[in-house]
Amino acid sequence: MSIASPENTTQTHDPRSSALFAAVHGRQTKIDRVLNNLGRPALVSEYFGHLTFGLAQMREKLPKDAYTNLLKTLDGGKKLQKDTAESIASAIKEWAVGKGATHFCHWFQPMTGLTAEKHDAFISIQYSHHSELRVVERFTGSQLIQGEPDASSFPSGGMRSTFEARGYTAWDPTSPIFIIEDEGGKTLCIPTVFFGYHGQALDNKTPLLRSIEALSNEGCEFLKLLGDVDVKRINATLGAEQEYFLIDRHFVALRPDLIMTGRTLLGAPSTRGQQLEDHYFGSIPRRIKNFMEDVEHELYKLGVPVKTRHNEVAPSQFELAPIFEDVNISSDHNILTMEILKSTALRHGLVCLLHEKPFAGINGSGKHNNWSVSNDKGENLLEPGTTPHQNLRFLAVLAVTLKAVYDHSDMLRASIATPGNDHRLGANEAPPAIISVFLGSLLSHILDNIENGKVAQGTDEQIIDLGVDKIPNISKDYTDRNRTSPFAFTGNKFEFRAVGSSANVAVPMSILNAAVAEAFKESTAELQKLLKTKGTRDEAVIELIRGIVKETKAVRFEGNGYSDEWKTEAKKRGLPILNSSAEALEVLKDEKATKFLVDQKVLSREELSSRYHISVERYVKTLEIELSTLGELVSSHVVPAIEKQITALSAAHEGLTSPGLKKLHLERMKSIETVFENVLNGLTDLSEVMEKIHSNPDETSKMKMLSTQAKPVAEKLRDAADKAEQLVADELWPLPKYREMLFANTLS
Fold first, then answer.
1. Residue 196 DSSP symbol
2. How many CB atoms lie within 10 A of CB 36?
3. What is the number of alpha carbons within 13 Å of residue 446 lying toward its C-beta?
4. Average pLDDT over the chain, rounded to an integer
5. 184-224, pLDDT tens digit by residue?
6. What's the mean pLDDT in 468-497?
7. SS3 for 57?
8. Which of 139, 180, 508, 717 sits between 20 and 30 A of 118, alpha carbons compared?
C-alpha cells in the first residue's frame, strides 16, 4: 500500500492509507522540562526525585524525635506512634500541596496484575461560630497509615465472603511516596499493602515484603556462622530490564485484537522481519528517541534511576533498564515505569505494547530480573572480593542460591506462568520453560574443582587483553553470556530472564527470595553439623559447598537451552518440564512444592489456594477473550475481504479470452476458495470447542481444555486467515499489516 496524501485518503476513505500516512508523519510531542534557576533545562541531578517524598525528605522536614521514631519502626518493626504519624502526615501534606497536589490516594497492587487507587481530596470542612462554612486542606496520620477501599470487586480467590469483603490498605514506609502529574492535575500516591479483614494478603506487595524479611533473617544466621558476626541485615537488590513495542495509535485503532487483547491474533509475516538483525542497537528513530527522552524525564522526577535505552531485536521493539535498587522499591518503580511508558506513548500518538508476544514470527518481550543480595555494609554477597574470606563467602552464597533454584525450580516456573508468557517461552527467542542455571566456564571450573576435592582456585579478576594500544584492558565478567538460560549468573548477580514483560516483578521475586531464605535455613543447619566435625570453619564451609555442588549439579547447564537435546537431557536429569501455564499453575496446589513458602511465612495455605484460583480464572478469562475476539475478527474482517476478492476474481475471469490464461486464473481462484473453506471450517471448529468449554462448570478443567484443545484450533484458524491475507488484494484487506505497524516508525 502506498503512502497516500491526506487529500487522497479522504477521497478513497481508506482507513489503512490514512493510518499509514498519519504514522509516517507522526507528531513530535515534547513535555515541559524542569528548568534550573538560569531558565535552562536542569541537569538530571538537579531534579531527580523532586516528585518523591522518602526518608531523605522526612529527615529534612520532620522533627528529630519523629524521624527517630520512624527509623525505629523501620528497623525494629515497632508500631508507629500516633503523634509521629501526625507529624509525618503534616509534613507530607505541606510538601504535596506545595507541589500543587489536590488529592491523595493509597496506591496498591491487587491480584489483578495492575495497580489500584481511590482518590480523596485534601479538603476538609470547618464551621465557624457563625456557622460559616470554611474549606481547608487537611491530611491526618490515620489517613496516611490506613485506608479502606471498597474491595468487593478485587479478586480474593475465595478468601473473603461477600458479607466480609472489606479490604484495607496500610502504608509501606519503606517505599517512597510520590506525586503523579498529568493533564488532570497532581495526585499524591502512598504505596500501601492491601489485606483482608482477617489479615490475608490480597495483593502482591505483602508477600514480597514478607519474603524480604525471611531472606534477611535466614541469611544473617548463615553469615554469622561464616564469620560475619556483626551482620544485622541482608537486602535483596533488583534491576528489572523492561522490553516493549511501540505502535502508532492509528494502526491500533484499526486492530480490534490489539485493543481487546494487547496482541495481534492475526497477521501474515512481513517479507522483512528481524532476519537482517539491523534493528538491535541500531540508530533510534527520531520520533522514538523523543518519546524515550520524555519517559526518562518523567521517571527521573519520580526518582526512578533509569540508565539504559536502546533498540531491541524485533522491529519497533525497545528496552530501558534501571540501576539496581532495593527489591521492594525496584518493584514499585517497575510498575511506575510501565505506567509511564503507556501514558507517555499516548501523548506521542503511540501505543506501548507490554504483551509478551504481540507479533508472531518475531521476538517477544521479556523483563530480565537482575537479582542479587548485599549486607548492611553495602557489600554485594554475589561478587568475589579481595580477601580469602570474601571469596569463600561469595562461593557459599552462590551455592545457596544454586540450592534454592534446584529445590524450588517448579515454583519459580509457576511464578512466571501467564497466558502471554506461554507464547514467548521456548520460542527460540527466550529461555525455555525448563528452569536451569548458567554459571559460565570460570565458575563452573571452580565448582568442579571443589566437588572433586581439589583446592579451589582463586577468583582474582580476569583481564581481557584486546590487543589494541588505544583501548584500555577491560575487566572480564565472571561468566560467559548465555541468552538461552532462564537463570544466568552475570558477574555479580543472577539474571532471571524468563519473567514476562507485563509481569509484576513482586511475584517472581517473592518466590525467589523465599526459596533462597529456605536454602539459607537448611544450609545453616548443615553447616552447624559440619562445624562440629571439621578442623576449621573454612574446611566446614568448603565441605558444605561441595555437598551443595554435588546435590544441585542437575540444574546447571552451560549449553543451548533452545535445543531439543536439552529437553531430552533435562528429562534424564529429573528437572521439572512445565511447558504451559496450565501445567505450571498446578504446582500452586502441591503442598510439598509450596511448603517452603508456608514455612518462611511468605504465603499461607489459604493465600496459596487463593492465588491458584485467581490465576486459573485469569487464564480462562484471558483465553476466552482472545478466542472470542479471534472469531469476531475473522467473521467481520477476514471473511468479507475474501468474499470481495472472490467476487472480483469471478468478474475478471469472465473477461478473459485466452484458454491458457483462463486455466491459470482458475487455479488462482481455486487457491483462494480452498483457503476460504479452511477459514469457514476453522470458524465452525472454534465455535464448537468454545461451546464445549463454556458448558464445563469447572475452572481447572476449562483451563486444561483451553490449553490443549482450543489453542490448537485457534492456531489452525489463524494459519488459514494469514494465508488469506497473502492472497487477497492489498486494497481489499481491512487490517493494518505487520509491515506497516512494525516499520512505520523507521520512516518518521
1. E
2. 12
3. 21
4. 87
5. 799 999 999 888 877 888 899 999 999 999 999 999 999 99
6. 70
7. helix
8. 508
Instruction: Give 662-673 as a DSSP string.
Output: HHHHHHHHHHHH
Distance between CA atoms of residues 17 and 367, nearest Å: 34
For residue 409, what is its C-alpha cell? 525450580
Contact (Cβ atoms closer than 8 angstroms) between residue 486 and residue 435 = yes
* SS3 call for 120: strand
CB atoms near residue 123 (< 10 Å): 11
Q: Quick one: angle between helices 64-76 and 82-98, nearest 10?
A: 110
Task: Report d(CA 14, CA 24) in Å as an integer.
Answer: 16
CA distance 207 to 213: 10
Outline where 452-590 has alpha helix (H): 506-533, 537-551, 564-573, 581-584
C-alpha dist (Å) from residue 585 to 145, 205, 503, 579, 597: 35, 20, 15, 11, 15
Closest CA to 515 of 594, 608, 584: 594
Q: And the C-alpha cell for 341? A: 511508558
Predicted structure pTM score: 0.91
The pLDDT tens digits for 439-477 are 988 889 889 988 888 754 444 444 444 444 444 444 445
Rounded to 5 degrees, φ, ψ at 231 are: -70, 135
CA distance 156 to 200: 9
As given in the structure block, the three cell numbers for residue 609 are: 489456594
Task: Give 200-213 as a DSSP string.
Answer: -B-BSHHHHHHHHH
pLDDT of amino acid 470: 45
For residue 297, the SS3 value is: helix
| Helix, strand, coil share (%) of the chain residues, nearest 5 | 50, 15, 35
Q: Is the pLDDT of residue 161 over 50?
A: yes
Grid cell of 393 as nine digits: 563467602
Q: List the Cα angle 710/716/718 in 5-degree steps.
A: 100
CA 205 to chain CA mean position, Å? 14
Question: Which distant-in-sequence residues (6+ apart) come within 8 Å of 685 by Cβ?
Answer: 713, 716, 717
* Alpha-carbon separation of residue 37 from 47, 50, 57, 579 (angstroms): 12, 15, 21, 57
Strand partners of residue 352: 246
CB atoms within 10 A of CB 62: 20
Nearest partner of 433 among 707, 723, 728, judged by Cα: 707
Please, are residues 231 and 724 in contact by the beta-carbon 8 Å criterion?
Answer: no
**Tally of residues, the chain:** 748
